[in-house]
Amino acid sequence: MKRFAGFVRKEFIHIFRDPLTMIILFVIPALMTLLFGFVITTELKDVRVAFLDLSRDEMTQKIADKISSSGFFMRAGDLENYGEIDGALRSQRVKVVIIFGEHFGRNLLSEGRATLHIVTDGSEPNVATQATSFISAIAADVNRELAGTAVTANLLVQPEVRMVYNPALKSQYMFVPGLITMIMILICALMTSITLTREKEFGTMEALLVSPLKPIQIIMGKVIPYFFLSLIDAVLIILLSRLVFGLEVKGSLFLLWLEVMLYILMSLSLGILISSVAKTMQQAIFITLVGGMLPTVLLSGFIFPVESMPGAYRWVSAVLPPRYFIVILKNIMIKGTGFLHVWKETLILFLFAVFFVVMSIRSFKVRLE
Amino acid sequence: MRNEQKQEVIRASGIAKSFGTTEALKEISFGVNEGEIFGFIGPDGAGKTTLFRILTTLLLPGKGSMTVLGRDVVREFRKLRGEIGYMPGRFSLYMDLTVGENLRFYASVFGTTIEENYDLIRDIYTHIEPFTNRLAGRLSGGMKQKLALSCALIHRPRLLVLDEPTTGVDAVSRTEFWEMLRQLREHRITVLVSTPYMDEAMRCDRVALLQEGRILAIDTPENIRQGYSRRLYSVRSAEKFRLITALRKFPETRTAWPFGEDVHVTFREEGRASGLENFLREVGITDARITEIRAGIEDCFLELMGGAHAGP
User: Fold this and answer.
1) Is the dihedral of CA B295, B296, B298, B300 positive or negative?
2) Residue A369 in domain
3) What is the CATH number of domain B232-294?
4) Contact B106/A2, CB-based, under 8 Å?
5) Touching check for B92 and chain A: CB below 8 Å?
6) For residue A262, what pLDDT is reported?
C-alpha cells in the first residue's frame, strides 16, 4: 500500500507541476463551457407570434393576452385557418404559431383539459426551444391560476409542441451534457494514455517494470489522480452552467454523480487501453483524438442528433459509449427523469467499462517489446 | 571476502535473441560470481542493452536459459523484479521531479525509505545532496548519473545492473563513478556494467568482450592483455594522417589502427620494425618515433575481432 501511495503522490506532482496539464485540466473545460454557452444562448425578446384561434372564447383570449404581454413575445397577427401557418412561418416574420383548437374553453371546463398547439420555426432552434419553454411556462401559470379560482381543481391546459423543419430540435442547454461528455473523454482517455506512454518514451517504464509494482498498481496509480480531477471538472462545468447560464439540474444529483463516475471510469480504462497500443505520446494523442474525440463530437449526438443519422452512422454511433452517456445526462439534467429511464444506457456504459478495464489490465505489457 | 567460495549470481547458457531478421545475440553463455564487478565491453550495437534487458526480465530470450540470483528470468520474473537494481541507459529519472522526490519515489516503490538504506548510498548521494530541491532535468550529466545510481541502489539490491552508466558523462565524473562502484563491493553487491569505453575495462574484475552479439573473450582484463600474442608497436608523428597512409602501404604491416595521438602497428613477421624507419624516411616522414608497447584491452578487442586486415 505504501508503494502504491508513493506512486500516486508522484502522479500528482507530475500533474501539478506541468502548466500545460493544468491548462488542459481546468482552463479549457471552463473556457469551452463559457464559449459554447455564449455562442449558443440568445436573449429571447419580442419574438413574433401568430395565433390561430378556432374557438375564440374568454379562455383563449386570456391566454393569448398573457403570452403577448409577457415581454418575450409580440403579437404579429391572427390567422384564419391551418393553411396559413406555413405561409406565416415562411414569411420569416413569424417564429411561433399558437393554435387553440375548437371549443377550447368548453373542453377545459367540461373535460378538465384542453390542448394548446405550438408550432415553431425549427430552423432557428435556439429561439424555437426557448419560445416553447416560455410558452409552456405561461401555460403552467394559467393552470395554477385556474386551480386557484377553485372553480374546478384539476383543470389543465396542455401545451402540445410540434416543431417543423427540425423535428429533433436541440435545446440551448443540450451543449452542457455534450460538453461534459466530450471533456470527460478528453481528459480521462487522452491524459491517461499520454501519461502512460510518457513513461515508455522517457524510459522510466523500464525502471517501473523492474520494480515490485504490479501492473494493476501502475494502472490504478495513473487512474486515481485523473479520476478525482475529472470529477472536479464535472463539478466545474455544471457549476458554471448553473451560475452563468442558469441551467439547473432537474433530476437527482446523487444519481448524476454516480453516472458521471461510471463514465469517468470507462473513459480512463479506454485511455489505458490506448496507451498499451501506442508507443509514443504522439501516437496516443492521435489515436485518442481521431479514434475517440472526433466520433464523440460528430456521432454521439452532441452536434447531430442520432435520430437523424443515416443507418450506417447510427450503427457506428451505437458502439460509442459517449452516445449513451449523453442520453443519460440529458435525462437527468434536463428532463429530470430518474434511474428507471436510464437504466438501459447505464447498463451499456457499465458493460463498456468492465470490458475496457479487463482489456486494459490484460493488454498491459509486463515486458518491453 | 574474496577468498570465500565463489557463488554464481548469474548463469546464462545459449542466450539468443532476434529482432526480425537482425540477430542481436547469438547464443552466448557466461557466468557472473557474487561480489565482482563484471563488465560487458563492446561498441554500440554489440547487443549489450538487449542482453541486460533479458537479464532484468524486460525481454524474453529467443533461445537459451538464464538464472539470475537463483531465479529463472522467464518463469520467476515476478519474484526477480525488485531484487535487482537496474539503471537503464537513459537513466530513467523523472525530469520534472526534484532530486529528493526522485529518490523518495524509488524508495517508496520498492517498499523502503531513504533513511533505512542511507548508509549504502551516502558516499554517492552526498555529491548531489546540496541540490535536493533541484529538478532532475536541470542536473548535469554527471549528477544525473549519481542520482540514477542512488535510485537504483536505494532498495539494497544484491545485484546492480548498469547499462552504459558512463555514456555522455564527463571524464572526471566517470572516474568518480568507478570509485563509487569499487566501494559498493564492501556491501557484497554484485555489479554488472556495460560500456563502450575500452579504457574502463581495466576497472572491472572480469570483462566480456562483446561484438555483434557474440562474446569474443571472458577473463580478467589482465589475462586478456596477457593473451595478446603479437608484438605491438606504437608509432607517433606530427603528421598523423600521412603516417597512417604510409604505414598501411608498408608491405610488412599487418594492422595499423589509430589510437589517440599514436598509431598501433603489428607486422606480418615479428621483428620487422627496423625496416619501417627507413621506409617512413623515404616517404618523407622524418619525425616518426617507434616504441614497442604492451597491448591494451582495445588492441586485444581489435585483434579478437579479426584484425587480420589492415583496418578501416
Assistant:
1) positive
2) no
3) 3.30.70
4) no
5) yes
6) 93
**pLDDT for B222-250, tens place per residue?**
999 998 888 899 999 888 888 888 888 88
B107: chain A residues, CB-CB within 8 Å: 6
Picking from B15, B36, B300, B294, the residue whose alpha carbon sits closest to that of residue B189 is: B36
> What are the angstrom distances between the C-alpha of B171 and each of B136, B166, B197, B199?
21, 9, 11, 12
Nearest CB partner across the interface for B92, out of A206, A367, A368: A206
pLDDT reported for residue A169:
39
Contact B192/A at CB under 8 A = no
**Which top CATH class is B8-226?**
alpha beta
Judge whether B114 is closer than 8 Å to chain A, CB to CB.
no
CB within 8 Å: A203 and B106: no
Select from A143, A164, A185 the last residue of a domain: A164
CB contact under 8 A, B88 and A207: yes
pLDDT band at A313 (very low <50, low <70, confident <90, very high): confident
Q: What is the ipTM of this complex?
A: 0.82
The reply to whether A30 and A112 lie within a common domain is no
Predicted confidence (pLDDT) per residue in B33-90, tens digit: 999 999 999 998 899 999 999 999 999 999 999 999 999 999 999 999 889 999 998 8
- Which residues of chain B are within 8 Å of residue A203 when distances are taken between CB atoms? 88-92
Q: How many other C-beta atoms are found inside a 10 Å radius of the C-beta of residue A312? A: 8
Which residue intervals of chain B bear CATH 3.40.50.300?
8-226
More confident residue, B272 or A298: A298
Domain count of the fold of chain A: 2
How far apart (Å, rounded) are the C-alpha atoms in residues B287 and B283? 12
Instruction: Please judge whether A3 and B108 are an interchain contact, meaning their C-beta atoms are less than 8 angstroms apart.
Output: yes
A89 in the same domain as A113: yes
Inter-chain touch A212–B110, beta carbons under 8 Å: yes
